[in-house]
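> forwarded from #structure-qc
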């Protein structure tokens, strides 16, 4: 049930991915989009902004839920995922502010925040299409390799490898938050459709393990083998191990 597209380059992935997400919005104007951060979807977001500017896609009835957020960074911090989404997508399109959901990493009662986040997704009717990137260790959202899959939205201690990988966005490695809040594997798997985007040689191992390896919480993305409707758009470098 995984439809794999090996694309010529990142630009082709972005165009194709925006076509799929924009197509969903055209067919179902009040759809629920699950969105992701990281560098992988940036090109797709640029395309979606273009589609809005060109009058092709109208986001006025769309609702969005993001996968994750760092703990203890304010929403104004330029490394927060709130900031990222505003800069790369939301300020360029017409999705109403009140329809935008991103977990808060700064709430007093984090357990409550996690519960309420999953409840809000369910109340909205569930996610129609969930966009995912993938970490080089196979993480999705911030679901890190672990002994067991965690279903609901939850707090995460980031792995050393993820902190190192994300340090490039911060002044120093010490500035990278150690904790995050993330939709769980259950929250992600409940989406009706999943779109995973990956490019570059440093994703090749994770992509091979995801598609061809055993389903194991050591490679969180491998659970996607059990989802009924997954589309993966990757470039040749990310596909090198297949
Ligand atoms: C972060 C995010 C993930 C993302 C991953 C890969 O850890 N929490 O959602 O998929 O990084 O990021 P990139 O797309 O920059 O390679």
């Amino acid at each position: 049930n995984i439809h794999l597209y090996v694309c010529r380059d990142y630009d082709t992935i972005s165009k194709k991915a925006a076509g799929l997400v924009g197509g969903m919005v055209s067919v179902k104007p009040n759809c629920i989009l699950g969105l992701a951060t990281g560098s992988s979807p940036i090109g797709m977001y640029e395309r979606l902004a273009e589609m809005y500017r060109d009058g092709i896609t109208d986001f006025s009835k769309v609702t969005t839920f993001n996968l994750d957020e760092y703990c203890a960074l304010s929403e104004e911090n330029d490394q927060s995922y709130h900031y990222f989404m505003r800069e790369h997508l939301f300020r360029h399109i017409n999705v109403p502010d009140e329809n935008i959901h991103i977990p808060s990493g700064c709430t007093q009662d984090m357990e409550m925040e996690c519960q309420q986040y999953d409840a809000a997704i369910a109340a909205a009717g569930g996610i129609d299409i969930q966009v995912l990137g993938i970490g080089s260790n196979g993480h999705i959202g911030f679901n890190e390799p672990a002994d067991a899959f965690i279903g609901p939205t939850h707090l995460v201690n980031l792995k050393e490898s993820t902190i190192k990988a994300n340090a490039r966005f911060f002044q120093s490695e010490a500035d990278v938050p150690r904790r995050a809040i993330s939709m769980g594997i259950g929250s992600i798997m409940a989406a009706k459709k999943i779109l995973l985007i990956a490019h570059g040689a440093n994703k090749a191992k994770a992509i091979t393990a995801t598609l061809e390896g055993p389903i194991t919480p050591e490679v969180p993305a491998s659970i996607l083998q059990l989802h009924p409707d997954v589309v993966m758009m990757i470039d040749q470098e990310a596909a090198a191990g297949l």
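QC bot note: The longest strand covers residues 2-7. The domain at 2-199 is CATH 3.40.50.1360 (Rossmann fold).
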